[in-house]
């Protein structure tokens, strides 16, 4: 099913420059989007994670056996990198000396105040991601590929190893599941905000 | 969720679910220079891995070869090196961040040549012939703008040989400290000690204009340093002459056409203003305290992609409570009257 991905990896392992170019062009922007959606990291943080993930990927190309789409394999590596970052962040001490120069400058000069509309957009994004995470993974991946990465049905079919008809059907079910979950989450918040 | 009622309304139909998902899942990508750094790191690792793999394979196969086959292979490799410049391309030193549609031809080795597009990699040994202006982002940080009708060669990761035409280098101080960029010309070698300068070379002489920071020219007869606002004229065998030059205005207009794009999404207004100031060669003057506060606290959204710095400045200021005017060597920002 993932013959094209296997062939691409084989060409990369043979040292073909064009294969690396195809690999990078197809995967890097999507990994950036993948990490950005799942974290509140700044661009430098996103850059670090995607770079580490791609380095690990090219280092371990031999372990890619074509049992899943190459993109799925790469997002798994990214997921581990993200988890590492979160683990390390959790281990950091809660209190830091204010004598650290850069921290003092941060305290003295808050960089900016975000307008309400920005906060709303950010909240909305995280609310959508929360609902997506509550869906079966296949639904979430299909919706993210279609509406986040802007992939065609054909491209999603290749990635998920399905026919285009199956993907259309999957997207229909995923949208319906998302709508129900979104409405339920919204209703829950209305209930919480207004018990009467 | 901040506004559940809106969320409920937004999920009434398939089209609205699609809109909601599109708005929430769409994210802006990394700036080209960040993506270039990621690419360079991944590509370097890939080269190391594939080189090791090739070596292992050769090592395993070697006992079965006859000495004749080994000699024949070596001869074939030598021919390939001679024809193609190198069997394995050199490590990337940068990439093409902007390319004018009129294009650029890149040559590597004796016969290999290609037309470069945005995102293509630049390597040591590449020879460029430009029909239109272009922008190169270096892996070590910093950029180089190349004017139309220029010819140059990347002779090393931090050395460019300018045969003809005009280039403009802009390097952050950190990149300069680590690995100073050198420009070789027929009138001498220019070392980048600061941040921004232009070099023009033609059949008569070499002209260097320093816009910010300092450079050192090691010429054929003498070695001179020059700071911001200085122009040097150098010819082989003739002492270097210098004169003052403006850091703004029409002389620098070509550099604006191909300037690196500023990703305004999520950036502070003050950072954008500083960028516009550097790109125009004029200093930034924010004349009232409320304007300084607004510049510091405003976070920008959207895009100024495709706009030259001056046009971008006008577009961005139009969305704020500030107004700006260009006065000779300054961009003056103040609170707009209500």
Descriptive account of the structure:
The complex is a heterodimer of chains A (196) and B (338). By secondary structure, chain A is mainly α. Chain A has nine helices and no strands. In chain A, helix 7 crosses helix 9 (164-193). Chain A is globular. Chain B has helices at 4-10, 14-25, 32-61, 67-84, 173-178, 253-257, 269-280, 289-297, 309-318; strands spanning 92-99, 104-108, 112-115, 121-123, 127-130, 134-138, 143-146, 151-156, 159-170, 182-185, 188-192, 196-201, 206-212, 214-219, 223-227, 230-235, 238-244, 283-286, 322-327, 330-335. In chain B, the strands form two sheets. Chain B has a 17-stranded mixed β-sheet that branches. In chain B, strands 18-20-19 form a three-stranded mixed β-sheet. In chain B, helix 7 (269-280) packs across helix 8 (289-297) and helix 7 runs antiparallel to helix 9 (309-318). Chain B is flat and about 65 Å long. Classes of the chains: A mainly alpha (196), B alpha+beta (338). Chains A and B meet through helix 2, helix 3, helix 6, helix 7 and helix 9 of A and helix 1, helix 2 and helix 3 of B.
